[in-house]
Amino acid sequence: MNILVLYLVLLKAVLTSFSGMASLPMVRNDLVVTRHVLTDRQLATAIVAGRTGPGPNGLYLVSIGYFIDGYPGAIAGLIALLTPAFLVIPLMHWIGAYATIPRIRGAIRAVVLGSAGLLMAASVPMARDAATAPILTAIVVVSFFTLAFTRAQTWWVMGAAAAVGVITKLFS
Amino acid sequence: MPRPSLAELAGVFLKVGNTTFGGGPPTMAALEREFVERYQWLSAEEYGLSYALARLTPGTNVMAFCAATGWQILGWAGALAGTLSTTVPSAVLAVLITVGYESWRTNPWALAAINGTVAAVAGMMLATVFVLVKPYTAGLRGAGLMRTVRAIVLSGSAFVLLYRFKLSPLKIIGLLAVVGLLWHDPVENARPAVADVAAKEPAPQ
Fold first, then answer.
1. Min Cα–Cα distance to chain B from A119, Å
2. Same domain for B68 and B134?
3. Which phi and psi (to 5°) does residue B103 adopt?
4. A33-68 burial by CB neighbour count: b if 16+ within 10 A, else e?
5. Is the CB of residue A153 less than 8 Å away from at least one CB of chain B?
6. pTM above 0.80, yes or no
């Protein structure tokens, strides 16, 4: 895949989302479903890699770039992640005043809520692919409740899930 | 307000951005302690404005927050230093972890661990949906009911349009922005200040 096209695809996903993981449905749609340059498995691995270390949640884009085009792809992913951040500066200059207008806020909130729905649509097939055994289904459910209702760190949940996977293998 | 050198500013971003786990909210909280309380490079009001406008900026909010605070402290050079210092070391680590995952995939024990983490990722994504929607709901009684219905209808329609009808996410986002302009939350009329967003908005991811 051409590096510029990869950057533009990732940039489009970042530009149309309002949080780190909200770009995921667009990324999946473009790279997994439409262009077939990434698998769901690689996407899940990229998310794990992005969430395992410190830094923003959007770092999974760097891993996706790496999967598709090696180190140049990773750099394209990083630049796509960084580019929209600078839009905040003109926002601070001129648009801040308009943020108090209820209709503008309403539009932004609708987009955030829409992002949640899109994320759900991307999550369902991934959950179906991941839950191939009862213990893996249990991990999906337990990690959902743990992360939705407690302040547990993602890193610990991932580590515990990996440990459960290994222990299950040990006794199978 | 005291002004740091570019190296001092980059040093704070580097330290906080690459040692704080858990995404945007912990990073922004840690930067508040450094910039506002410890070094006093920013006032609480400037911090609140950066936080609020970062929420309105497309993309990863914490990156916009770093650009905004860096810009407030040292202009464009500060914005560049903020975003690069926060992400580049973490991005290198993310690539190393990706490489590690790929090379371990042939090992059955590593594969078992990866299967476990992939399942946890699916649970984490569903939890993220819950966390994103929850702040926009307000129970099932009185004025809160309308707010809750709005949140469920907007997020639910996006889900159905993508999952069932395979509509492009870009079109769905555009459609929802228009719907949001026309069907805004009446409770929002009571909030006059931009900085209020810092206190009221759900935490950026």
1. 6
2. no
3. -75, -20
4. eeeebbebbbbbbbbbbbbbbbbbbbbbbbbbbbbb
5. yes
6. no
Distance separating alpha carbons of residues A130 and A125, to the nearest angstrom = 9
Tokens of B145: 């009911």
Give contacts of A120 with chain B, Cβ < 8 Å.
Answer: 126, 129, 155, 159, 163
pLDDT digits (tens, 9 = 90+) for B24-41: 666 777 787 788 878 889
Average pLDDT for B65-83: 93
Q: Which residue of A has its CA nearest to B113?
A: A162
Is B108 a domain residue?
no
Q: Which residues contact B140 (CB under 8 A, 6 or more apart)?
A: B148
- Judge: A57–B23 Cβ closer than 8 Å, yes or no: yes
Mean pLDDT of all residues in B148-167: 91
Structural domain for B49, as ranges: 6-102
Q: Mind listing the pLDDT tens digit for each residue in B85-143?
A: 999 998 999 899 888 877 777 788 888 887 888 888 788 778 878 877 888 888 787 77
Q: Verify that B20 and B69 share a domain, yes or no.
A: yes
What integer is the mean pLDDT of A131-143?
93
How long, in residues, is chain B? 205
Are B80 and B127 members of one domain?
no
Q: Which amino acid is at B197?
A: V
Residues B128 and B86 in one domain: no
Domain total of chain B: 2
Whole-Å CA distances, B10 to A28, B19, B156, B205? 34, 14, 42, 22
CA pair distance B2, B77, nearest whole angstrom = 17
Res B73 pLDDT > 80: yes
Domain-by-domain residue ranges, chain A?
3-130, 132-172
